Every structure is written in structure tokens, then in C-alpha cells.
Amino acid sequence: MGPLVKGLLDDWEAAARSPRALRRANSWGLPGGPVAHLNDMVVRAGFGGRPDCDDADAYLLSLVRLAATDRLAAQIVLHRVLPPVISIARRRGRRHVGGIEGALGDLVTQAWFVISCYPVERRPHKVAANIVRDIEYFEYVAGHRARRTKVEFVDHDFFLSGDMGTPPTGTSTPPEEDHVHNFLIDLQLHNVSPLRVTIMRLMCDGWQGADIGRRLGMNERTVRWHKAAALRAVPSWVEEFRPLDAKDAAPGCDVAV
Which pLDDT score, from 0 to 100, does residue 45 have? Predict the structure, then answer.
């Protein structure tokens, strides 16, 4: 255990048993009643439990809502997501100039920002997973996007504007915005090319393969090939993005080619 993790845990233990901190935390009136140790709140927020527990997700969302203005709530949320953040630091630390400890320091700093600015109204589900994904994304992807390419995470209105050429001739209901957002982040975290990210963005917005091909100057088979290659990089999302209807596999997020 490095000095940063030790320091985080020491600070947490001091806060978790502090009568003053407990009084403040219990004053929030969160579900489950008063706690005798802040670890109880971390557990109620899903630590060590099933990732698909709706009650834990709702509890964590309440903490994140408080974290926008309350440092103690932000500290509780940080410790809820600390294990996967440490895992990211171990993976990213192999290429970090400061090693694992340096990567963890950067990620923890980013975590405070992500937690305090989390869009609770727009992304109220899978909160822990979203926070962890956002921490890695903002630390390792967002800051480098402009240098790599200008065509990433372009919104739907931009693609449908007159400057983009012919709009799609057929669309289907796209997946939930939150799922699309996380899916595209994961594509970038797995170093999927900007072209393939653009294709998947269009498909998840409801564009048909033929329309994408006309827009990007390639045939429909090439579009499908890029789609399949992108999904091979993030197979965990295949089930989330099964087509909502059978026509052209729209929104285009299955693996059948």
C-alpha cells in the first residue's frame, strides 16, 4: 500500500468515527436511519454489493447530490468508488511518469471534480459505474481529444445540420442517452479510432448503414465492418445495444455483419 492510499485511509478512519461528522451525515436523513460509522453509508451505497442493486444506486445518487456542496458527502462517495479507481491507477501507472502512485494521485484529484459536478438529473442510474468511467475519461481521454481529432462526440444536431449533407432517410429509436454516452467513452478508452467512434455515434443516433456510408464516402459493407470492429473492442456493451428493431440492425449496435 503506497503512501497516498494510506493517507486516504487514515483520513477516512478519522472522519468515519468523528462524532461531528456522524452528526452531520445523520442530519441528511438518508434511507436506512442513522449510522454509527460512515462505513455503513459506503456499504448502503453499494460497496461490496451487487452492481445492479437499485436501492444502493438510489442511495449513492442521494450522496452525490449532496456532494455538490458538501465535502463530507463527496468523501463518502470517493471511498465508495476507490477500489476501481485504484485498479485504474495500477493499469495506467505502467505508463505514468510517476508510476502507480502518480497515476492514483491524478485520478483522485480528478475524482473530486467528477463527484462534485456529476449531472444527477441527467444520469441518475448506474451512478458508481458512471463516476468511475468519467474519472478515467476526463483524466486520460478528454484532455487529449483535440490534439487527436476534431470529430469525436459530435452531437445529434450537428450531424443533422445542413452543413453535414444529406440527413438519414430512415431512423429508429436510439438507445438511452446515458448508455450512448458511456458506450462512446468506453470506445475511446479502448483506443477505438475516431472514424469508428463517429460511425457508432451515428448508428446510436438512429442512422442507417447506407446513410452513414453516403455521408462518409464508403460503401455500406465497409460501415458494417467498422461497426463490428468497434464492438469487438468493447464486447461488454453488445447486449446493451441490441437493435430495437430488425431493420438494418438499427441503431446499429449489434455484432451481426
Answer: 97
